[in-house]
Amino acid sequence: MGDMEPRPYTLVAELTYKCPLRCAYCSNPVDLDAHSDELRGEDWLRVLTEGEALGVMGVNLTGGEPLVRKELEAIVAHAHGLGLYTNLITSGVPVTRARLVALRDAGLDHVQLSFQGPDAATSDAMAGLAAFETKLEVAGWVKALGLPLTVNAVLTEANVDRTEDLIALAEHLHADRLELAHTQYLGWALLNRDRLLPTAAQIERSRLSAKAARERLKGRMEVAMVLPDYVAGRPRPCMDGWGRRFIVIAPDGLVLPCHAAHT
Description:
Elements: E1 10-14, H1 41-54, E2 58-62, H2 72-81, E3 85-90, H3 97-106, E4 110-115, H4 120-127, H5 132-144, E5 149-155, H6 163-172, E6 177-182, H7 188-191, H8 193-196, H9 200-216, E7 222-226, E8 246-249, E9 255-256
Parallel strand pairs: 1-2, 1-8, 2-3, 3-4, 4-5, 5-6, 6-7
Antiparallel strand pairs: 8-9
């Protein structure tokens, strides 16, 4: 492997910028009117085929909210047919149990479900929509259907002091993995940074809570934490170097070496 040229192994497919939620930390472009074009479903099938030919092994189906794309089942089926590992990154809105069954049967391998807080009041306030109870139901469906579940808890000043409650929520949902993802400040998150960014002390406390949970839950639930760049000590390589490991495809088909490259 040391003598091989770097190749991307993950394709991040941003299927749409549309989303029923209105999260203040959203990474969507702030000039959404200038990004209204979307690839057709058949174009996404071609993109996946071309990605697999480059050596891509997995695809993250994300957005916006990928569930608003009516072609999602066909996209999943095509990815599965290519032998790609398919991960759906979703808010859980809108989905029905029947559609989740259809996605599983099409070959979906994994579901990553976002929570904006450990309870309805916190989560719904950040999401701008009463969706917490729906998310709990969707998490139950995912596990009942035999799909691996990652709980993705997005951390901001509003919920960072409740990191242990978010860990408890993931345990209650029998998640296979918990990603405590501090907001990355681009798009709307950068615009709203002053009211989203926790203090360095808050971030350190949450990091220690995550570390303790990682040790306690080893072998039962993986616990990962993504820190904001502001407190990382030094800039980290952009996804291991631009385009070396990840390729991002924006909804309009723009090929990017990382999420923020067009900003």
